[in-house]
Amino acid sequence: MTDTVNPSVHPAATTDAPAPGRTLVHRSGRWIDEWDPEDHGQWESVGRGIAKRNLVWSIFAEFLGFVIWQLWSIVAVLLPTAGFTLDSSQIFWLISIPSLVGATLRIPYSFLVPLIGGRNWTIISAGLLLLPAIALAIVVGNPETPFPVLLGVAALAGFGGGNFASSMSNITFFYPQREKGWALGLNAAGGNLGASVAQFVVPIVVTIGAAAAVNLPLAGWIWVPFILLAMFGASRYMDNLSSAKADFAGSAAALREPHLWLLSLLYIGTFGSFIGFASVFPKLIADQFPSFSAIAIGGASVSLAFLGALVGSLARPYGGRLSDRFGGARVTMAAFAVMAVMTLLVTAVLPTGQFWLFLACFLVLFAAAGAGNGSTYRMIPVVFALRGGGDALTGGDVSSKRKAAAALGLISAIGAYGGFMIPQALNLSRQGSGSYTSAFLVFVGSYAALVVITWLAYGRAGRHGGTRI
Predict the structure, then answer these.
(1) What fold is seen in the domain 8-246?
(2) Which CATH number fits domain 248-469: 1.20.58.90, 2.60.120.10, 1.20.1250.20, 3.40.50.620?
(3) What is the pLDDT of residue 423?
(4) d(Cα 170, Cα 182) in Å, to the nearest integer?
(5) How many Å separate Cα 125 from the centre of its chain?
(6) Burial, 98: exposed, middle or buried (Cβ in 10 Å; 0-12, 13-18, 19+)?
(7) Distance separating alpha carbons of residues 244 and 189, to the nearest angstrom
(8) How far is CA 397 from the centre of its chain?
(9) Is 143 in contact with 84 (CB distance < 8 Å)?
(10) Which helix or strand (DSSP H or E) is residue 229 part of?
């Protein structure tokens, strides 16, 4: 049980006293009262340092969430090498089920920070990552493990996908409106990099010193110490804010807003494409260019699939920055146009067997999807602010801010379903025609349609209240 401390009674022990900003009150359990990042005096004296410390550990925990979320994207491809007998469709299910579970978990995860505290939930959500990491290490060590068991353990990796929503929700409470974009961009990009790191590190770790075999259990065990470090760091250095409140009414209002569903569709096209292609990229390379699936370097193997997630992650902040200059709608339309062209080129390159041209096309596709992530996410608060009659600099009135905050979490959840849809579309295409061409052509048509939808809904609007959408 924690006691609320009256700062007038014990000022030296319980408060920081920035002047002229509002005084912060610290309670046991690392709870902070009277937090107001819009209070310039408080922010400049103590607030910025506290927010930065929480952001650093939030990024680390979310980074590990993406690592665990994407582990099966590379492990599933390596299972046949470890003696597992699985068909292509089963491997696709192992790759895609974490995205399905992770997208679904993002909805409740977005409400848990206000309910139990950002620090507390970061400790718990990081601890939950131990389950998929350890379970993976156990089941992949036995080639006789039944497929339903493998699928159930892969589903546990969805815990990592849920972390994004709670991490973003937590950080948005720490930063003032004028600095939220950059802070959230860093938080998101740092997390997204986890997908690339998992795909780079796992092939090296499981093959080094293993001769012709692979030591797949290490794909899970190696992350356990880092997860424990994240739990310790969150416990020791992060804080809970009593001012963070669950806004169920704001979520209900956002769900009634047509623009939430339009923006969700755009986010499926951008983030859904990023996470979907990132998860399936190792399998695409293994199927179409098996000689490039694993490149021997010394005593280990490296998969070039990690480059896709890396490029997409690094491009995300620039999508937001370009949107600040040219408008989110323009950048989003450009991203979808590039994605359509690159996907069409992929269909032309596949029959030629030119791996390096295939890789180049896909890396441009990843860069466009990553930039589109940033631009679409940047559009959300702008659209809701303008819908409320305000402007993007202030975020609109209180009602607009509430709906925008709720929409950020909901849209991130809906968009993540693309991570399930893209691998399954490729799976159906391969089952039906023996190739991936049909699925890629569907993607081309979808991106072209999204260019038109973005233009009709936001591109034609031009400037509203002095701000480009």
Answers:
(1) Growth Hormone; Chain: A; (1.20.1250)
(2) 1.20.1250.20
(3) 94
(4) 15
(5) 15
(6) buried
(7) 23
(8) 28
(9) yes
(10) helix 224-237
CATH 1.20.1250.20, the chain: domain bounds: 8-246, 248-469
Give the tokens for residue 48.
């910025």
Whether the CB-CB separation of 118 and 173 falls below 8 Å is answered with yes
Determine the residue type at 159. Answer: F
Q: How large is the C-alpha radius of gyration of the chain?
A: 23
Q: What count of residues does the chain have?
A: 469
Provide block-wise average pLDDT over 10 residues at a time, the chain (469 residues): 42 46 77 84 87 93 94 92 91 95 90 87 95 96 94 95 86 81 81 89 82 81 96 94 76 80 94 93 91 71 85 88 85 96 95 93 96 88 69 53 74 90 94 91 96 88 50
Tokens of 300: 């280990």
Confidence (pTM)? 0.85
Structure token pair of residue 125: 């959500």
Q: Is 252 exposed, middle or buried (0-12, 13-18, 19+ CB in 10 A)?
A: exposed
Q: What pLDDT, on a 0 to 100 scale, did the predictor assign at position 107?
A: 86
Q: Where are the alpha helices (DSSP H) in 388-461?
A: 398-416, 418-433, 437-457
**Contact at 8 Å (CB) between 309 and 366?**
yes
Q: Scan for tokens 């010394």, then name that residue.
A: 298
Signed CA dihedral, 360, 365, 368, 370: sign only: negative
Alpha helix (H) ranges present in 37-87?
40-42, 48-78
Burial (0-12, 13-18, 19+ Cβ within 10 Å), 184? buried
Give the HSE-up count for residue 277: Cα atoms under 13 Å, Cβ half-sphere. 33
